[in-house]
Amino acid sequence: MIKTKCFAGETKTNIAQEMTMKRLEKEKKTIGIMIQIFCSANHKTVRKLLCPACTELLDYAKERLKKCPYGENKGACSKCKIHCYKPGKRQIITDVMRFSGPKMVTKHPLLAIDHLLRIKSSRRRETISGKPDNI
Ligand SMILES: [Zn+2]
Questions:
Q1: What is the pLDDT of residue 128?
Q2: Buried b (16+ CB within 10 A) or exposed e, 36-52
Q3: Taking CA 66 as the corner, what is the angle to CA 65 and CA 69, rounded to the nearest 5 degrees?
Q4: Separation of alpha carbons 106 and 80, rounded Å
Q5: pLDDT at 56
């Protein structure tokens, strides 16, 4: 008898995994998905595959995350004052986030919400330091 894989429970497992993942693990997964969405749409790569440039970008992003001095307490990269990305890479990653960010909401709502909350809390931190924010 051939055993068939059960796909019905798959989404549930993924969501449970996403909820219990550590922040840096989530960030790594989020950036991976964002680059993947960006690459398949802009570089016409087949789903789940990355072109050489995007593979390099993902490796670079993971490396930066690993070396992030804030560790598990990190805020959103886009709001960070350190700017640990090289200028050229920073421009590309900004484009990737701008492009893929809105698409994350339907594909991975939990990761997207987590990301948005972090941007919001980073912004609040900035406001406390005296600089008024026009929200
Ligand atoms: Zn690509």
A1: 47
A2: bbbbbeeeebeeeebee
A3: 80
A4: 26
A5: 97
Nearest to 54 by CA among 24, 105, 46: 46
Q: In whole angstroms, give the CA distance from residue 112 to residue 31.
A: 11
Q: 69: closest CA among 57, 80, 60, 58?
A: 80
Q: From ligand 1's centre to the CA of 60, what distance in Å?
A: 14
**How far, in Å, is the centroid of ligand 1 from the Cα of 87?**
18
Ligand 1 centroid–CA 132 distance in Å is 38
Give CA angle at 55 (49, 58), nearest 5°: 115
Positive or negative, the CA dihedral 124, 122, 98, 84 is: positive
Determine the distance separating the centroid of ligand 1 and the alpha carbon of 92, expressed in angstroms.
11
**Residue 129's pLDDT band (cuts 50, 70, 90):** very low
48: CA distance to ligand 1 center in Å?
11
User: What is the pLDDT confidence band of residue 72, given thresholds at 50, 70 and 90?
Assistant: confident
Query: Model pTM?
Result: 0.73
